Amino acid sequence: MFEAITDEEQRGQVGIGTLIVFIAMVLVAAIAAGVLINTAGFLQTQAEATGEESTSQVSDRLQVVSTSGTVNDTNQKIEKLTFIVATSPGSGAVDLNQTTVEFVGEGGQDRFEVQSSNISDIIGTSGDVLTDNSDRKELEFTISDLEYNGANLDEDERVTVTFTTASGASTVKEIRVPTTITTEDSSVRL
Question: FRET label pair with 177: which of 14, 27, 79, 133, CA 20 to 30 Å apart?
Answer without folding.
Answer: 133
